[in-house]
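Here is one chain, start to finish.
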Amino acid sequence: MEYLEDVTEARYLAEEHQKNLEIGQELDPLSEQDDDECEYEGVIDHPDYPEIEISHMDEAKCQKIENTFKTMELEPLETLREKTRHLDYFQKKVIETGLKYARQVVKCIKSRNPIPEAPKVMVHGGAGSGKSTVINPLKQWVHRILQTSGDVVAEILRF
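Its structure:
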């Protein structure tokens, strides 16, 4: 009997598996009983909500589309200039760096050159130090600069 050893080993493993199943009965019999009852009953619809089908729940989530980006509201140009004038020296340096890069991008798009390397700037500080005060005008200035080149970009992308 050439397979006797394999059969003996398989029987031993089956017995060990059965012992592991019985350990649950010894450690937490109420949980095991609850699991058995749930398995026996299967899925039961709630009497208050018979029309809800679980299979359609995933489809409803997929159909909902959320905007991840907020629309940017541009302030009037004079208000934006006034806000920029009231920044301190270091905040103005951040604005200058961002505007310089935006202008370089517009130049390279118009002349069909490679896009320049973006400056690596980190704006940090504690609460109330003026991070948002400098970033909000910067994003509006950059948006205005890049928006003016939008017609040129659309024309380039047609080719």
